Amino acid sequence: METIVKKLYEAMFLVDSTKAVEFDAIIKAIESILEKAKVEIVSIKKWDERKLAYKVKGAARGTYILVYFKADGSTIAQIERDVQLSENILRVLILTAEHMTQENVEKETPIAAVERQQQAAAKAAEEKAALRAEKAAQAEQAAKEAQEAAQEIKAEKENNENDDTDSNKKEEAESDEPKNSDQKDSDVVEEPPVEEENKEEEKE
User: Fold this and answer.
1) pLDDT by residue (tens digit) across 134-153?
2) Does 1 fall in a domain?
3) Do the beta carbons of residue 94 and residue 10 sit within 8 Å?
4) What is the 3-state secondary structure (H, E, C) of 114-150?
5) For position 98, which CATH number holds?
6) How far apart are CA 7 and CA 29, in angstroms?
7) Is 77 exposed, middle or buried (0-12, 13-18, 19+ CB in 10 A)?
8) Total domains present in the chain
9) Is the pTM of this model over 0.70?
């Protein structure tokens, strides 16, 4: 029995970008073609989206799907024929990839790099906005605490002033009492005893 040797292949599928919006459906269409050829899919991912140099089957922009798979060389023609018959896939380019390492296969695609950068930028913007909001909240809290402290100081000052006023009034009241008493005593006119005057008159 002849042993079938499967080699590593790199396939670049081109699809209409307007149809690539339904990305899951496109992936299923590609997988269906490859499974029909009984290949072993190693990886499948979106590579990039670009304007085409010329229209292909009416499409002006194309989305590229990069696939690595292991297969018998005799199946390549079948895959290319099925792509030509597909309504979802514009064309495919298949090359041998025996020279490629696992690192090359797992290398980040251009569109993945852009998406990662966009996500990083969005995350940085969110963190910056959150930091600004936190600083604004802290400033608002500090202003509120300062206002409350100022109100407390003002209230304490007013209380102290009221206490000083009450104390002064009390001292003034206390200092006025003896003066009034002396004044009353000075206003009293002493009259001589009547009995002594009568006795003096009898002696005469």
Assistant:
1) 888 888 899 999 999 889 89
2) no
3) yes
4) HHHHHHHHHHHHHHHHHHHHHHHHHHHHHHHHHHHHH
5) 3.30.70.60
6) 22
7) exposed
8) 1
9) no
